[in-house]
Specification:
Layout lengths: L2 H17 L10 E4 L5 E4 L6 E2 L12 H16 L5 E5 L2 H9 L8 H6 L6 E2 L4 H7 L5 E4 L3 E6 L2 H22 L9 H22 L1
Parallel strand pairs: 5-6
Antiparallel strand pairs: 1-2, 1-4, 2-3, 4-7, 6-7
Helix pairs in contact: 3-6
């Protein structure tokens, strides 16, 4: 996949993320990893560039976006299953990220797509971000929103949408005394069943 093709794919997905209100035009940041294991990122500027620390000094990016490049590079290296990453700042995700509280498993689809819960971590602490993604597809970045990952861009978008739904449910139930979380065992069992059965069925359909 050459630079021109990659830029076109990223621009299409970036427009999709903005249209679906997963991220704002002024903060959007996405990346994909190709079959050759080369990762590419696109931020607020309509330019695709390689996700690599070597590129940091060559790209006129903001400190925020350079930090995201480091995060994406480390995530792809740590988690081979991820091939797409989206930074989401939807209203409920951003509210939860600013509150700094973990999101409990209140919804079935949250457990299946996101994980048994969602932690809030310091976006500058790469080790904490990697730890927050262990056995999960999303993590809240304090004051920034959420980092949502998947096997492809469709999966990452689904994770972002369900993450927003889970954050909204948590916020609304919090003011009513709190919801009843799915217990530890059931949450992990539901996620395992989804990952090893239904997600594979969906992938064959694709």
């Amino acid at each position: 996949m050459n630079l021109k093709d990659t830029a076109h794919i990223l621009q299409t997905q970036k427009d999709r993320v903005i249209k679906d209100k997963i991220a704002c035009p002024s903060t959007v940041c996405i990346s994909i990893r190709s079959k050759t294991k080369q990762a590419w990122m696109m931020t607020t500027r309509d330019k695709a560039f390689i996700v690599s620390p070597v590129q940091l000094d060559d790209e006129p990016e903001s400190a925020r976006n350079k930090n995201f490049m480091v995060l994406h590079h480390r995530i792809y290296k740590k988690f081979p299953k991820f091939n797409a990453i989206i930074h989401s700042d939807q209203i409920n995700i951003l509210t939860a990220a600013r509150a700094g509280k973990p999101i409990p498993p209140l919804l079935d689809d949250f457990v299946q797509l996101v994980g048994p819960d969602a932690k809030t971590v310091d976006p500058l602490n790469v080790a904490a971000v990697l730890s927050g993604l262990k056995r999960r597809n999303a993590v809240l970045l304090k004051d920034e929103g959420a980092l949502c990952a998947g096997q492809d861009m469709d999966d990452a978008l689904a994770v972002a949408q369900v993450m927003e739904k889970g954050c909204r449910t948590f916020i609304e139930t919090f003011f009513l005394g709190g919801g009843i979380p799915i217990n530890w065992f059931e949450a992990r069992l539901m996620r395992l069943v989804y990952q090893y059965k239904y997600s594979r069925i969906n992938r064959r359909v694709k």
